[in-house]
Amino acid sequence: MKKKTFLVTGGTGFIGSNICELLIRKKYNVKIFDNNSRGNLGKIRNIKKKIKFIKGDIRNEKLLNKAIKDVDAVIHLAYINGTKYFYSKPILTLDIAVKGILNIINCCIKNKIKEVYLASSSEVYQMPNKIPTNETETLKIPNIYNPRYSYGGGKILTELMGIHYGKKYFKKLIIFRPHNVYGPNMGNEHVIPEFINRMKKITKKRKFFLIKGSGNESRTFMYIDDFVSAFNFLIDKGKHLNIYNIGDPKEIKIKDLAKKIAKILKKRIKLYRSKIPEGSARIRCPDIKKINKLGFSSKVKLEDGLARTIDWYY
Ligand SMILES: NC(=O)c1ccc[n+]([C@@H]2O[C@H](COP(=O)([O-])OP(=O)(O)OC[C@H]3O[C@@H](n4cnc5c(N)ncnc54)[C@H](O)[C@@H]3O)[C@@H](O)[C@H]2O)c1
Protein backbone atom coordinates (compact mmCIF):
# COMPACT_ATOMS: atom_id res chain seq x y z
CA MET A 1 0.00 0.00 0.00
CA LYS A 2 1.25 3.49 -0.86
CA LYS A 3 2.38 5.35 2.24
CA LYS A 4 0.83 8.75 2.96
CA THR A 5 2.54 11.99 1.99
CA PHE A 6 2.72 14.74 4.63
CA LEU A 7 3.34 18.41 3.90
CA VAL A 8 4.97 20.13 6.89
CA THR A 9 4.89 23.94 6.88
CA GLY A 10 7.66 25.34 9.08
CA GLY A 11 9.43 22.00 8.58
CA THR A 12 12.98 23.38 8.73
CA GLY A 13 12.31 24.89 12.16
CA PHE A 14 13.01 23.34 15.57
CA ILE A 15 9.82 21.33 16.10
CA GLY A 16 9.22 20.85 12.36
CA SER A 17 12.60 19.26 11.64
CA ASN A 18 12.08 16.82 14.51
CA ILE A 19 8.56 15.95 13.34
CA CYS A 20 9.92 15.36 9.82
CA GLU A 21 12.52 12.93 11.21
CA LEU A 22 9.67 11.07 12.94
CA LEU A 23 7.65 10.92 9.71
CA ILE A 24 10.65 9.55 7.82
CA ARG A 25 11.18 6.91 10.54
CA LYS A 26 7.51 5.98 10.07
CA LYS A 27 8.27 5.59 6.35
CA TYR A 28 5.94 8.36 5.24
CA ASN A 29 6.75 10.61 2.30
CA VAL A 30 7.57 14.12 3.42
CA LYS A 31 7.44 17.54 1.81
CA ILE A 32 8.54 20.68 3.63
CA PHE A 33 7.23 24.17 2.90
CA ASP A 34 9.25 26.87 4.66
CA ASN A 35 10.71 30.27 3.80
CA ASN A 36 13.73 29.58 6.03
CA SER A 37 13.23 32.89 7.80
CA ARG A 38 14.13 31.08 11.02
CA GLY A 39 14.55 27.47 10.01
CA ASN A 40 17.39 26.22 7.82
CA LEU A 41 18.39 23.18 5.82
CA GLY A 42 21.10 22.34 8.38
CA LYS A 43 18.32 21.28 10.75
CA ILE A 44 17.17 18.59 8.31
CA ARG A 45 20.63 17.47 7.22
CA ASN A 46 20.01 13.85 8.35
CA ILE A 47 16.93 13.47 6.18
CA LYS A 48 17.59 16.00 3.41
CA LYS A 49 17.89 13.35 0.72
CA LYS A 50 14.59 11.73 1.73
CA ILE A 51 12.37 14.79 1.69
CA LYS A 52 11.24 17.32 -0.88
CA PHE A 53 11.93 20.91 0.20
CA ILE A 54 9.92 23.78 -1.25
CA LYS A 55 11.12 27.25 -0.33
CA GLY A 56 8.10 29.48 0.03
CA ASP A 57 6.18 31.89 2.17
CA ILE A 58 2.97 30.58 3.73
CA ARG A 59 1.29 33.82 2.64
CA ASN A 60 1.84 32.89 -1.02
CA GLU A 61 -1.34 30.93 -1.78
CA LYS A 62 -0.37 30.03 -5.36
CA LEU A 63 2.92 28.46 -4.34
CA LEU A 64 1.36 26.70 -1.35
CA ASN A 65 -1.39 25.30 -3.57
CA LYS A 66 1.22 23.87 -5.93
CA ALA A 67 3.14 22.30 -3.05
CA ILE A 68 0.01 20.77 -1.53
CA LYS A 69 -1.29 19.10 -4.71
CA ASP A 70 -0.26 15.47 -4.24
CA VAL A 71 -0.40 15.45 -0.46
CA ASP A 72 -2.57 13.37 1.95
CA ALA A 73 -2.03 15.26 5.22
CA VAL A 74 -0.80 18.70 6.32
CA ILE A 75 0.99 19.70 9.51
CA HIS A 76 0.89 23.49 9.84
CA LEU A 77 3.68 24.93 11.99
CA ALA A 78 4.93 27.97 10.02
CA TYR A 79 4.74 30.97 12.33
CA ILE A 80 6.79 33.66 14.02
CA ASN A 81 8.34 32.30 17.18
CA GLY A 82 10.45 33.87 19.94
CA THR A 83 8.79 36.14 22.54
CA LYS A 84 10.84 39.24 21.67
CA TYR A 85 9.38 39.19 18.15
CA PHE A 86 5.78 39.22 19.45
CA TYR A 87 6.60 42.60 21.02
CA SER A 88 8.67 44.00 18.12
CA LYS A 89 6.81 42.55 15.10
CA PRO A 90 3.09 42.30 15.88
CA ILE A 91 1.99 43.12 12.32
CA LEU A 92 4.20 40.46 10.75
CA THR A 93 3.08 37.95 13.39
CA LEU A 94 -0.59 38.61 12.64
CA ASP A 95 -0.04 38.67 8.88
CA ILE A 96 1.55 35.21 8.93
CA ALA A 97 -1.09 33.91 11.35
CA VAL A 98 -4.12 35.15 9.40
CA LYS A 99 -2.95 34.61 5.81
CA GLY A 100 -1.25 31.37 6.83
CA ILE A 101 -4.35 29.66 8.23
CA LEU A 102 -6.59 31.05 5.45
CA ASN A 103 -4.23 29.69 2.77
CA ILE A 104 -3.86 26.33 4.51
CA ILE A 105 -7.63 25.89 4.73
CA ASN A 106 -8.31 27.08 1.17
CA CYS A 107 -5.58 24.90 -0.36
CA CYS A 108 -6.62 21.84 1.66
CA ILE A 109 -10.26 22.24 0.59
CA LYS A 110 -9.30 22.77 -3.08
CA ASN A 111 -7.11 19.67 -3.07
CA LYS A 112 -9.51 17.53 -1.01
CA ILE A 113 -7.02 16.96 1.80
CA LYS A 114 -8.81 15.50 4.79
CA GLU A 115 -6.14 15.29 7.49
CA VAL A 116 -4.80 18.49 9.09
CA TYR A 117 -2.75 19.18 12.24
CA LEU A 118 -2.54 22.77 13.49
CA ALA A 119 0.07 24.08 15.94
CA SER A 120 -1.38 26.35 18.59
CA SER A 121 0.38 27.31 21.83
CA SER A 122 0.11 27.57 25.63
CA GLU A 123 -0.02 31.34 24.95
CA VAL A 124 -3.75 31.01 24.15
CA TYR A 125 -4.36 30.58 27.91
CA GLN A 126 -2.41 33.72 28.91
CA MET A 127 -2.89 33.74 32.70
CA PRO A 128 -5.04 30.62 33.15
CA ASN A 129 -7.82 30.43 35.74
CA LYS A 130 -6.83 26.93 36.75
CA ILE A 131 -3.43 25.29 37.30
CA PRO A 132 -2.74 22.69 35.94
CA THR A 133 -4.61 23.92 32.89
CA ASN A 134 -6.63 21.58 30.73
CA GLU A 135 -7.87 22.08 27.20
CA THR A 136 -11.28 23.46 28.29
CA GLU A 137 -9.69 26.62 29.81
CA THR A 138 -11.00 29.96 28.47
CA LEU A 139 -8.79 31.45 25.75
CA LYS A 140 -8.01 35.13 26.13
CA ILE A 141 -6.55 38.33 24.77
CA PRO A 142 -6.25 40.30 28.04
CA ASN A 143 -5.22 43.62 26.48
CA ILE A 144 -5.83 44.33 22.81
CA TYR A 145 -3.17 47.12 22.86
CA ASN A 146 -0.32 44.91 24.05
CA PRO A 147 1.65 43.68 20.99
CA ARG A 148 2.59 40.47 22.82
CA TYR A 149 -0.91 39.15 22.19
CA SER A 150 -0.43 39.25 18.42
CA TYR A 151 1.05 35.76 18.84
CA GLY A 152 -1.63 34.30 21.14
CA GLY A 153 -4.38 36.11 19.22
CA GLY A 154 -3.13 34.62 15.96
CA LYS A 155 -3.19 31.16 17.51
CA ILE A 156 -6.76 31.66 18.83
CA LEU A 157 -7.82 32.63 15.31
CA THR A 158 -6.02 29.56 13.91
CA GLU A 159 -7.94 27.35 16.33
CA LEU A 160 -11.31 29.00 15.59
CA MET A 161 -10.86 28.60 11.84
CA GLY A 162 -9.53 25.07 12.25
CA ILE A 163 -12.47 23.86 14.32
CA HIS A 164 -15.25 25.42 12.24
CA TYR A 165 -13.86 24.61 8.80
CA GLY A 166 -12.78 21.26 10.20
CA LYS A 167 -16.39 20.33 11.03
CA LYS A 168 -17.44 20.88 7.45
CA TYR A 169 -14.47 19.94 5.29
CA PHE A 170 -12.06 17.59 7.06
CA LYS A 171 -12.07 14.03 8.43
CA LYS A 172 -9.28 14.47 10.93
CA LEU A 173 -8.45 17.96 12.13
CA ILE A 174 -6.33 18.13 15.26
CA ILE A 175 -5.05 21.11 17.25
CA PHE A 176 -2.10 20.80 19.61
CA ARG A 177 -0.84 23.31 22.17
CA PRO A 178 2.88 22.92 22.89
CA HIS A 179 4.20 24.19 26.24
CA ASN A 180 7.87 25.31 26.11
CA VAL A 181 9.53 22.59 24.10
CA TYR A 182 13.34 22.68 24.30
CA GLY A 183 16.38 20.84 23.02
CA PRO A 184 19.48 21.15 20.84
CA ASN A 185 19.41 23.53 17.88
CA MET A 186 16.23 25.33 18.95
CA GLY A 187 17.45 28.84 18.08
CA ASN A 188 18.58 31.42 20.62
CA GLU A 189 15.38 33.32 21.39
CA HIS A 190 13.96 31.13 24.15
CA VAL A 191 14.65 31.13 27.86
CA ILE A 192 16.80 27.96 27.99
CA PRO A 193 19.26 28.74 25.15
CA GLU A 194 19.28 32.38 26.26
CA PHE A 195 20.31 31.34 29.79
CA ILE A 196 22.92 28.88 28.47
CA ASN A 197 24.44 31.51 26.16
CA ARG A 198 24.60 34.13 28.93
CA MET A 199 26.11 31.65 31.40
CA LYS A 200 29.12 31.43 29.08
CA LYS A 201 30.05 34.95 30.19
CA ILE A 202 29.94 34.15 33.92
CA THR A 203 33.36 34.16 35.56
CA LYS A 204 34.59 34.10 39.16
CA LYS A 205 34.66 37.90 39.00
CA ARG A 206 31.42 38.40 37.04
CA LYS A 207 28.74 36.35 38.78
CA PHE A 208 25.72 38.60 38.19
CA PHE A 209 22.99 36.89 36.22
CA LEU A 210 19.94 38.92 35.19
CA ILE A 211 16.50 37.32 35.06
CA LYS A 212 13.26 38.92 33.94
CA GLY A 213 10.77 39.21 36.79
CA SER A 214 11.20 38.13 40.40
CA GLY A 215 12.37 34.64 39.47
CA ASN A 216 9.35 33.15 41.21
CA GLU A 217 7.41 32.97 37.94
CA SER A 218 7.14 29.36 36.88
CA ARG A 219 7.01 27.40 33.65
CA THR A 220 7.19 23.78 32.57
CA PHE A 221 9.64 22.46 29.98
CA MET A 222 9.35 19.46 27.68
CA TYR A 223 12.34 17.88 25.98
CA ILE A 224 11.99 17.60 22.20
CA ASP A 225 12.17 13.77 22.16
CA ASP A 226 9.16 13.64 24.48
CA PHE A 227 7.34 16.15 22.29
CA VAL A 228 7.95 13.96 19.22
CA SER A 229 6.75 10.89 21.09
CA ALA A 230 3.53 12.73 22.07
CA PHE A 231 3.04 13.93 18.50
CA ASN A 232 3.40 10.36 17.28
CA PHE A 233 0.34 9.45 19.37
CA LEU A 234 -1.61 12.27 17.71
CA ILE A 235 -0.81 10.88 14.25
CA ASP A 236 -1.78 7.35 15.23
CA LYS A 237 -4.63 7.93 17.67
CA GLY A 238 -5.61 11.61 17.78
CA LYS A 239 -9.33 12.27 17.36
CA HIS A 240 -11.07 14.58 14.90
CA LEU A 241 -11.77 18.13 16.20
CA ASN A 242 -9.88 17.47 19.42
CA ILE A 243 -7.38 19.78 21.07
CA TYR A 244 -4.38 18.40 22.98
CA ASN A 245 -1.96 20.06 25.38
CA ILE A 246 1.56 18.78 24.79
CA GLY A 247 3.92 19.54 27.64
CA ASP A 248 5.50 18.28 30.80
CA PRO A 249 3.49 19.03 33.95
CA LYS A 250 6.49 19.53 36.26
CA GLU A 251 6.68 23.21 37.22
CA ILE A 252 9.96 24.99 37.85
CA LYS A 253 10.55 28.57 39.01
CA ILE A 254 12.65 30.61 36.60
CA LYS A 255 15.23 31.32 39.33
CA ASP A 256 15.58 27.56 39.92
CA LEU A 257 15.97 26.94 36.20
CA ALA A 258 18.87 29.42 36.15
CA LYS A 259 20.43 27.70 39.17
CA LYS A 260 20.02 24.26 37.59
CA ILE A 261 21.76 25.35 34.40
CA ALA A 262 24.53 27.02 36.44
CA LYS A 263 25.00 23.81 38.44
CA ILE A 264 25.38 21.66 35.31
CA LEU A 265 27.92 24.19 34.00
CA LYS A 266 29.66 24.37 37.39
CA LYS A 267 29.20 28.15 37.48
CA ARG A 268 28.46 30.25 40.57
CA ILE A 269 25.86 32.89 39.86
CA LYS A 270 24.30 35.75 41.75
CA LEU A 271 20.76 36.43 40.57
CA TYR A 272 19.65 39.91 39.63
CA ARG A 273 15.93 40.54 39.27
CA SER A 274 14.34 42.95 36.77
CA LYS A 275 10.92 44.09 35.59
CA ILE A 276 8.85 41.40 33.94
CA PRO A 277 7.66 42.19 30.38
CA GLU A 278 4.05 43.34 30.37
CA GLY A 279 1.68 40.46 29.63
CA SER A 280 4.01 37.66 30.72
CA ALA A 281 2.07 35.04 32.70
CA ARG A 282 3.14 34.37 36.30
CA ILE A 283 2.58 30.66 36.03
CA ARG A 284 1.79 28.07 33.36
CA CYS A 285 1.43 24.34 33.73
CA PRO A 286 -0.45 21.99 31.41
CA ASP A 287 -2.82 19.25 32.42
CA ILE A 288 -1.84 16.47 30.00
CA LYS A 289 -4.35 13.76 30.96
CA LYS A 290 -5.87 13.90 27.49
CA ILE A 291 -2.65 13.04 25.63
CA ASN A 292 -1.76 10.54 28.38
CA LYS A 293 -5.02 8.75 27.57
CA LEU A 294 -3.75 8.20 24.02
CA GLY A 295 -0.77 6.35 25.53
CA PHE A 296 1.83 9.08 25.95
CA SER A 297 4.09 9.45 28.97
CA SER A 298 7.18 11.65 29.21
CA LYS A 299 10.55 10.00 29.69
CA VAL A 300 13.21 12.71 29.79
CA LYS A 301 13.95 14.40 33.14
CA LEU A 302 14.69 18.12 33.04
CA GLU A 303 18.28 17.57 34.29
CA ASP A 304 18.98 15.12 31.44
CA GLY A 305 17.31 17.23 28.77
CA LEU A 306 19.19 20.32 29.97
CA ALA A 307 22.52 18.46 29.93
CA ARG A 308 21.92 17.35 26.32
CA THR A 309 20.89 20.86 25.30
CA ILE A 310 23.87 22.46 27.05
CA ASP A 311 26.17 19.99 25.26
CA TRP A 312 24.88 21.31 21.94
CA TYR A 313 25.13 25.01 22.83
CA TYR A 314 28.46 24.94 24.65
N1 LIG B 1 8.87 25.63 20.57
C1 LIG B 1 7.89 25.76 21.45
O1 LIG B 1 8.08 25.57 22.65
C2 LIG B 1 6.49 26.12 21.00
C3 LIG B 1 5.55 26.43 21.99
C4 LIG B 1 4.26 26.74 21.58
C5 LIG B 1 3.92 26.74 20.24
N2 LIG B 1 4.86 26.45 19.31
C6 LIG B 1 4.44 26.47 17.89
O2 LIG B 1 4.99 25.35 17.20
C7 LIG B 1 5.35 25.71 15.87
C8 LIG B 1 6.81 25.41 15.61
O3 LIG B 1 7.62 26.15 16.54
P1 LIG B 1 9.21 26.06 16.58
O4 LIG B 1 9.62 26.15 17.98
O5 LIG B 1 9.67 24.94 15.74
O6 LIG B 1 9.58 27.46 15.89
P2 LIG B 1 10.64 27.77 14.73
O7 LIG B 1 10.74 29.24 14.63
O8 LIG B 1 11.88 27.00 14.94
O9 LIG B 1 9.88 27.19 13.44
C9 LIG B 1 8.95 27.94 12.70
C10 LIG B 1 9.25 27.74 11.24
O10 LIG B 1 8.32 28.50 10.47
C11 LIG B 1 9.03 29.10 9.38
N3 LIG B 1 8.29 30.29 8.95
C12 LIG B 1 8.10 31.46 9.65
N4 LIG B 1 7.40 32.31 8.91
C13 LIG B 1 7.11 31.69 7.74
C14 LIG B 1 6.40 32.06 6.57
N5 LIG B 1 5.85 33.28 6.45
N6 LIG B 1 6.30 31.18 5.55
C15 LIG B 1 6.88 29.94 5.64
N7 LIG B 1 7.56 29.53 6.73
C16 LIG B 1 7.68 30.39 7.76
C17 LIG B 1 10.41 29.44 9.95
O11 LIG B 1 11.41 29.59 8.97
C18 LIG B 1 10.67 28.23 10.84
O12 LIG B 1 11.36 27.20 10.15
C19 LIG B 1 5.00 27.19 15.72
O13 LIG B 1 3.72 27.30 15.15
C20 LIG B 1 4.98 27.69 17.15
O14 LIG B 1 4.15 28.81 17.32
C21 LIG B 1 6.14 26.14 19.65
Distance between the ends: 45 Å
Sum up the overall morphology in one term: globular
> What is the CATH level 1 assignment of the largest domain?
Alpha Beta
Overall average residue pLDDT: 96
How many domain modules?
Answer: 2
The class by helix and strand makeup works out as alpha/beta
CATH architecture of the largest domain: 3-Layer(aba) Sandwich
The profile of the biggest β sheet is: 7 strands, parallel
Strand content: 15-25%
Molecular structure report:
- The chain has a 7-stranded parallel β-sheet, with helices on both faces. Strands 7-10 form a two-stranded parallel sheet. Strands 8-13 form a two-stranded parallel ribbon.
- By secondary structure, it is an alpha/beta fold.
- The chain has helices at residues 14-25, 61-68, 83-88, 90-110, 149-169, 191-199, 224-237, 254-264, 289-293, 302-313, and strands at residues 5-9, 29-34, 51-55, 73-76, 115-119, 172-178, 181-182, 208-212, 218-220, 222-223, 242-246, 251-253, 270-274.
- Helix 1 (14-25) packs across helix 7 (224-237) and helix 6 (191-199) packs across helix 8 (254-264).
- Strand 1, helix 1 and strand 2 (29-34) form a beta-alpha-beta unit.
- It is 38% helix and 18% strand.
- The protein has 10 helices and 13 strands.
- The mean pLDDT is 96.
- It has 2 domains: 5-182 and 222-249 and 286-293, Rossmann fold; 191-219 and 251-284 and 299-313, UDP-galactose 4-epimerase, domain 1 (Alpha-Beta Complex), CATH 3.90.25.10.
- It starts with a strand and ends with a helix.
- The structure holds nicotinamide-adenine-dinucleotide.
- Residues 10, 12-16, 34-39, 57-59, 77-79, 81, 96, 119, 121-122, 178, 180-181, 187 line the site of nicotinamide-adenine-dinucleotide (NAD).
